[in-house]
Amino acid sequence: MNDNVTQLPPQEGPPDIFGPERQGCDLIIEGRRIPNIHIHDRGDSIEFVLDGRLSYEFPKDWAYLAAHMAANAMAIGAGYAHLGGETKDRHFAAPCMRIDFP
Description:
Shape: extended
Protein backbone atom coordinates (compact mmCIF):
# COMPACT_ATOMS: atom_id res chain seq x y z
CA MET A 1 0.00 0.00 0.00
CA ASN A 2 1.28 3.49 -0.88
CA ASP A 3 0.83 6.27 1.74
CA ASN A 4 2.30 9.08 -0.39
CA VAL A 5 0.07 12.07 -1.01
CA THR A 6 -0.12 12.75 -4.72
CA GLN A 7 -3.37 14.68 -4.94
CA LEU A 8 -3.35 17.96 -2.98
CA PRO A 9 -6.62 19.80 -2.36
CA PRO A 10 -7.14 22.85 -4.59
CA GLN A 11 -6.28 26.25 -3.07
CA GLU A 12 -8.14 29.48 -3.58
CA GLY A 13 -5.39 31.90 -4.62
CA PRO A 14 -1.86 32.03 -3.22
CA PRO A 15 -1.30 31.58 0.50
CA ASP A 16 -0.87 34.68 2.67
CA ILE A 17 2.86 35.38 2.79
CA PHE A 18 2.86 38.81 4.44
CA GLY A 19 4.01 39.02 8.04
CA PRO A 20 3.93 42.08 10.28
CA GLU A 21 5.46 45.25 8.93
CA ARG A 22 8.75 46.15 10.56
CA GLN A 23 8.19 49.86 10.82
CA GLY A 24 8.08 52.27 13.64
CA CYS A 25 10.52 54.15 15.77
CA ASP A 26 13.30 52.71 17.87
CA LEU A 27 12.62 52.74 21.60
CA ILE A 28 15.15 54.81 23.54
CA ILE A 29 15.12 54.63 27.34
CA GLU A 30 17.74 56.37 29.49
CA GLY A 31 19.84 57.09 26.40
CA ARG A 32 19.90 53.45 25.28
CA ARG A 33 18.32 51.90 22.17
CA ILE A 34 16.27 48.95 23.37
CA PRO A 35 16.64 45.94 21.07
CA ASN A 36 13.65 44.10 19.58
CA ILE A 37 11.06 46.80 20.40
CA HIS A 38 9.62 49.33 17.97
CA ILE A 39 6.99 51.92 18.85
CA HIS A 40 4.18 53.62 16.98
CA ASP A 41 2.38 56.81 18.01
CA ARG A 42 -1.35 56.09 17.67
CA GLY A 43 -2.61 59.49 18.80
CA ASP A 44 -3.92 58.95 22.32
CA SER A 45 -1.79 55.85 22.84
CA ILE A 46 1.59 54.32 22.07
CA GLU A 47 1.84 50.86 20.53
CA PHE A 48 4.86 48.70 21.36
CA VAL A 49 5.78 45.90 18.94
CA LEU A 50 7.99 43.26 20.53
CA ASP A 51 10.17 41.25 18.14
CA GLY A 52 7.75 41.89 15.28
CA ARG A 53 5.33 39.36 16.79
CA LEU A 54 3.54 40.82 19.80
CA SER A 55 2.01 44.25 20.21
CA TYR A 56 0.76 46.09 23.25
CA GLU A 57 -0.94 49.46 23.33
CA PHE A 58 -0.74 51.81 26.32
CA PRO A 59 -2.17 55.26 27.02
CA LYS A 60 0.49 57.93 26.55
CA ASP A 61 0.53 58.60 30.32
CA TRP A 62 1.57 54.99 31.01
CA ALA A 63 3.79 54.38 27.97
CA TYR A 64 7.12 55.44 29.51
CA LEU A 65 6.56 53.39 32.68
CA ALA A 66 5.57 50.32 30.66
CA ALA A 67 8.57 50.73 28.34
CA HIS A 68 10.97 51.27 31.24
CA MET A 69 9.74 48.15 33.03
CA ALA A 70 9.89 46.06 29.83
CA ALA A 71 13.42 47.26 29.04
CA ASN A 72 14.66 46.44 32.53
CA ALA A 73 12.93 43.05 32.48
CA MET A 74 14.56 42.24 29.15
CA ALA A 75 17.99 43.26 30.47
CA ILE A 76 17.56 41.23 33.66
CA GLY A 77 16.36 38.26 31.62
CA ALA A 78 19.52 38.54 29.53
CA GLY A 79 21.67 38.31 32.68
CA TYR A 80 22.38 41.97 33.38
CA ALA A 81 21.81 43.61 36.77
CA HIS A 82 19.62 46.31 35.19
CA LEU A 83 19.17 48.25 31.96
CA GLY A 84 22.39 50.22 32.41
CA GLY A 85 24.35 47.23 33.67
CA GLU A 86 27.75 46.79 32.08
CA THR A 87 28.75 43.48 33.61
CA LYS A 88 29.25 41.58 30.34
CA ASP A 89 31.41 42.13 27.27
CA ARG A 90 28.77 44.36 25.70
CA HIS A 91 25.91 46.54 26.90
CA PHE A 92 22.41 45.07 26.78
CA ALA A 93 21.18 48.17 24.99
CA ALA A 94 23.65 50.25 23.05
CA PRO A 95 24.10 53.83 24.28
CA CYS A 96 22.82 56.34 21.75
CA MET A 97 21.74 59.93 21.36
CA ARG A 98 19.20 61.65 19.22
CA ILE A 99 20.42 64.27 16.77
CA ASP A 100 17.89 66.71 15.35
CA PHE A 101 18.68 68.84 12.33
CA PRO A 102 17.12 72.29 11.88
